[in-house]
Design a protein that fits this description.
By secondary structure, this protein is of the alpha/beta class. It contains 13 helices and 27 strands. It binds adenosine-5'-triphosphate (ATP) and magnesium ion. Adenosine-5'-triphosphate binds next to helix 2, strand 8 and helix 9.
Amino acid sequence: MSQTETEAPAGKRDFIRDIVRADLAAGRTQTVVTRFPPEPNGYLHIGHAKSMCLNFGVAQEFGGRCHLRFDDTNPIKEEMEFIDAIQTDVRWMGFDWGRHLYYASDNFELLYDWGEHLIRAGKAYVDDLSPDEIRAYRGTLTEPGKESPYRTRSVDESLDLFRRMRAGEFPNGERVLRAKIDMASGNINLRDPVLYRILHAPHPRTGDTWCIYPTYDYAHGESDAIEGVTHSICTLEFEDHRPLYDWLIDNLPVPSRPRQYEFARLNLSYTVLSKRRLIQLVDEGHVNGWDDPRMPTICGLRRRGVPPAALRDFCDRIGVAKADNLVEVGLLDHCIREALNLTAPRRMAVLHPLKVVIENYPEGRTEELEAINNPEDPAAGTRPVTFSREIYIERDDFMEEPPKKFFRLAPGREVRLRYAYFVTCREAVKDESGEVIELRCTYDPATRGGNAPDGRKVKGTIHWVSTATAVAAEVRLYDHLFTEPVPGAGGDYRDGINPDSLTVLTDCVAEAALRDAAPGAPVQFERQGYFCADSDSTAERPVFNRTVALRDSWAKIQAKAEVKAGTDYTVKRADA
Ligand code: ATP
Ligand code: MG
């Protein structure tokens, strides 16, 4: 390595990186090993992106490694579909676990042996209480728990029962293996936590081999130790589990000594990030699947057209802290715009078409004009766009009686057609109901390319699409899935589902260059926003998702919106 081993080249500072830096400097750690440990019971979301950026990021920056570990200890909810999707998403985010792909289930045999080890050491016992009784005996935050009558059964009896649990002699819920710690502990997690439960259910990886499964708390820290993880970084809700994490590590013959550190999970305004809720949104049909572009899942964001670089940039900007906060979703939009501005080719598309006939342009004639692909990137070059006597413009680029600051088209007014000519509106043609259905205009042939030789100026430039080469398209506009900054703060989060989160425009037209847009490839529709073709596109009919509007129409509302009092949320703003 060229830089010193204890310096993160990117220069990122946060309390986790400070700990790692100090451990390396003091020689407590030789090689940093982290892990990203999803449970394969759903798809990854943007909160997981934060965890990935932290775990893979720290490993990269300090010359260590990061494992991908599936925390697959609950076969009832876990599926191969999720295991595959998670790997796709982690790779897409730009992270590489190399050969370090692990499963908690790889350790089931060893974890079982260590269960017997604890029994023999008098530190675990088989309990016959029912799940309800165990709950009742556990006590509360203010009252100590009560010891199970089975707590004092002999080592031999517990060993025998544990083996018979494994052999499948008992039905679900009849017995559990519990650690023998302290039923009076102030920390409820230490009141003889369950280590193993009986679950007659096939596992996606181990099939029918097991009918007892380790709990998360038991499997997680031990998997860390088995893999040689040095820094086990998790979210704050596990802070109270850390004493149990340490107790298990201290009482088992583990090959290494990992330490757990907790950081604040990502909370995003107008968004839910709990897997339980995301599963509900999918199962109850509030969205069209996990990859619905309104979902905060990685696959939803990808389908919406969000580039992984924008997510990594977002995670860098929000940083890593120890206190819970609420991140303004506008910051994410800002990062998306920043990333796409550099890379997305510009195209013209009209979402609400209004036909324009240019009366002095010869019928049947077309010509090609040169349009710039990306003003941010000269190397992106130019493309031809077809001009003709009939074109479409955006309905709201015309007003019959324009207010003061409206500089677009109006009767008698001249504007520039982007990359083309100046046109002047001569007449608005209406239907019986009085709605404008067509504009009659004239153009000035001397203004080809967009400038008048006589130096006269126009105030407005509008985009357009020639009817001669227009591609009919569907465009899907997305808004936040929730109307409340903190969904569910005042009751059921589902009550705040935004009924207008999806708007489907079926009569859009796009310039010919958009005919074969590859799904997922970003484009900017000039003056409107960033879009990408959706996987629903066909050769005849492309479908575009709006990834993000050019300027955030919500920004003003959000600036005023006050995040609910009584929470210690702080708001990060895009422009702060
Ligand atoms: P959820 O709370 O959404 O159901 P989870 O914690 O059950 O998520 P896991 O699959 O266990 O989901 O998470 C894998 C890793 O991602 C864990 O280390 C977890 O702490 C972290 N993680 C989950 N949600 C967030 C979040 N919102 N912000 C940061 N990290 C998160
Ligand atoms: Mg979890």
